[in-house]
Amino acid sequence: MRQGFKRDEPEFLVSEQQSDIVDDAYTFALKHIGQDIGALSVWQDYIAFLASRRLGSHFAEAQKFEKIRAVYHQAIQVPMYGVENLWKEYEQFEAAGNKSNAKTFLAEMNPKNQRARQICRQRRVFREGISVNMLARPPARCGIREAEQHARWKRLLKFERSNISDDVNRITLAFRQCILCFYHHPDVWYDACRFLVESKLPDEAAKLFDKALAAVPESLIIHFACADFEESRNSIEKAKAVFEGLIESRPSALVFILYQRFIRRAEGVDAARKIFLRARKTAAANTYHIYVASALMEYHANKEEKIAQNIFELGMKSFSNESEFVRQYLSFLYHVNDHTNMRVVFERVLSSLKPEQTPEIWTQYMQFEYLCGTVAAVHKLEKRWAELMTKDECVPPSITLQRFCFLDLWPCKPTEFALFESASGSKNLHVAPSLTKEQSSKLPRPDTSKMATYAGSTGHEVPTSAPSAPYSVAPLPMLPFPVDPFLEDFLKSLPVPSMTPRVDVGYVIGVLQKLPSLEGMRVKSEDSNGRWMPKRKGRDDDSDDDDDNTKKGKVDKPGFDIYRHRQQQKLNKP
Q: What confidence score (pLDDT) does residue 525 get?
C-alpha cells in the first residue's frame, strides 16, 4: 500500500474524495502497525502525503498545518528506529511556523520523545535475534530454533507489558506479531486474550477468543478461559455454548466437572446435579473424578453431607479398586467424624487391593489410629503392616517413630532418623524429617548470586532461580579407609541436593586416592593427638637407605656433574 501511495500525487489523486480515502487508509494502517519498531517510513510517508495536499484557502492550509503537527506529536512518541531523526524533522517543521508556539510545543514534547528513545533502545535489545517471518508450526513439530524463538518472544512480550502505561496498541501489536509466528501455540493466544481482558477491552478480547478457538480447537485451556471470560461479563448463554461444544467434540471428566461448577453458579444446585447425571451416562466422562467432584461440591458448596456420602458410596460400587478415590472418600469421612464407617472402609479396601496399591492407604490408616485409636490398636496395626510389607512380625523402628511426630515436628535429627531407617532395613512410607530454617541457615552454602545460567545442548533455557526448600543432610557412608576428622566433619555437613542425583561420597574419595598425584599418600602412623599422618615421598623417604649405603661404602656417583665438567674444561684450555 505504501509503495502505491508514493507515486506522483497529481496523477494519482485527481479529486478531494480520493485524497480523503487515502487519508483514511493511512489512518487505518497506522492504527494497527504505527507502534511497530520499524514503522518510521510509514509515518514519514503519511506526513509527506499531508504536506503535499493543496487545499487552496488560507483556513484549510492552517488546518492542514495543525493536522501535520498532531501527526508529528503521535509519531515522535513511538519507540521506533530513527525516532531521533523524526524529531529533527519536527524541529524544522515548527521552525517554519510561529516561533513562540514552536518553543512551547518543543519544550512540551521533548521529554516524551526522550522517553521514546529510551524505550526504543531497550526494545532493540529484546528484538535482537527475533525472526518475525518464521513459519508457524504446531508445538509437536517445533525444534530447537522454534523453542529459542518462543523464549525470545516471551521476554519481549514481558518487557512490552512492563510499559503498559504508554500505549495498549503497541503491546497488542506485539502479541499479534507473536501469534503470526506461533499460531498453533495455545499459550500465546491465552496470554494475548488475558492481556486484553486485563486492559478492559472486552470487545477486542471476545474477537480474539473466537480466533483462538478456531486456531487451536483442541486446547481445553482456551475453551475454559473463554467460558470464564463470558461468564465474567454475564454472557451465560455464550459460556454454556462453549461447554456444550466441548461435550460434543471432546467429552471428558474434566469438562463435565468444570461445566457442573459453572452451572451451579449460573443456574443453581438442581441444574448442576443434572450435569452429574449426564456425566455418568457418558462413557468418556464416567470416571471416579466426577464422583469425587460432585460429592465434594455437595458437601462444601451445598452443605449436603448425606448426599455427598451417598455419591461416594455409589462410586465405591465401581471404583473401589482406585486407591485415589478411596483416599478421597476416607478423607471425607475423617472430616465428618464418621470413624465407624471410616474403619469399615479401611478394612474393606485393604482386604481387596494388592499390597503394592495400598502404601498410602496404610499410611492414612496409621495416622488415623495415632490420632483416634488406642495404644493396643496402634500396636496391632503396626504389626499387621510389618507382616504385610516386610514379611516380618518385628515392627521396624522407623515405623515406630511415626507415632512421636506431628507435621514437621520430629523427635530426632535427620541424620538420626536415617540411622533408624538403615538399621531396620526397610523403606519408610513417610517423608524423612528435614532441617528447620534455623538449622538450615547454619549450614555452609555457595554464593549463587553471580552464577551464570547454563544452557544445555538442546538450546532450552534453564531457569535462573528455583524455589528454595529445606534440605536434609546426607549420612556419612561407611568408608573402607580411615578419614581425617576434619574431612569427616566436612563430609557430614554436605547437604543432599534436592534436584540433582545424590553423590556416593565414599566412591568419589576412593577414586581420588587412586589418582597418580596421590599414589604416594599412604597411612604411616598417628601423631600424638591420634590423627593419621601421611607418608611423603622425597628426601625423607630415602634418608634411611642413604645411611645404609654410606655405612657399607657404596655411594653412587651422579651420572653427570656439571661442576666437574666445567672444571675439566678450564684445565684443558691452553
A: 45
